[in-house]
């Protein structure tokens, strides 16, 4: 009897479910910020599991799975109670990026206009 058969079967089932979800979501339009955060958390968890599987033993695998479960348990209630908060945060991030771009563009214009004149002054130290 193979002692790791149950673990392999569970991993195969999980991989098949994730592949099914990816296929379902592949053509879908981006959802709300909360849904996208949930997808990101699942993708990160999947990637971490895939990276640590060949490198680690059973104890490390269990610890990583527990850490992933704890992170999901912390994030899920916040997403469920306040999905609109993430939409507002995404909008605020977009606005901050636009403000940054405007500030940089304005500074670039000032730099290029002042390129003809030198604002430096020669100081004789003798």
* Assembly state: single chain
| pLDDT averaged over residues | 76
Helix amount: over 70%
Shape call:
elongated
Strand content: under 5%
Class from helix and strand fractions: mainly alpha
List low-confidence stretches: none
Number of H- or I-type helical stretches: 4
* Overall number of strands: 0
What is the string of helix and strand elements?
HHHH
Biggest pleated sheet? none
Gyration radius (Cα, Å) is 25 Å
- Distance separating the two termini: 91 Å
What does this protein structure show overall?
It is a single chain. This protein is about 75% helix and about 0% strand. The longest helix has about 30 residues, at about 85-115. The mean pLDDT is about 75. It has about 130 residues and is mostly helical. The protein starts with a helix and ends in a 13-residue tail after the last helix. It is elongated, with a radius of gyration of 25 Å. Helix 2 packs antiparallel against helix 3 (about 60-80) and helix 2 (about 35-50) packs across helix 4.
């Amino acid at each position: 009897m193979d002692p790791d058969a149950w673990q392999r079967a569970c991993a195969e089932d999980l991989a098949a479910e994730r592949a099914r979800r990816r296929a379902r979501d592949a053509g879908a339009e981006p959802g709300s910020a909360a849904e996208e955060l949930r997808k990101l958390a699942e993708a990160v968890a999947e990637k971490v599991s895939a990276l640590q599987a060949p490198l680690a033993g059973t104890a490390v695998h269990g610890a990583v799975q527990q850490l992933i479960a704890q992170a999901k348990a912390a994030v899920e209630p916040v997403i469920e109670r306040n999905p609109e908060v993430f939409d507002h945060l995404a909008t605020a991030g977009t606005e901050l990026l636009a403000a940054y771009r405007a500030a940089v563009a304005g500074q670039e214009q000032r730099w290029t206009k002042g390129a003809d004149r030198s604002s430096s002054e020669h100081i004789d130290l003798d």
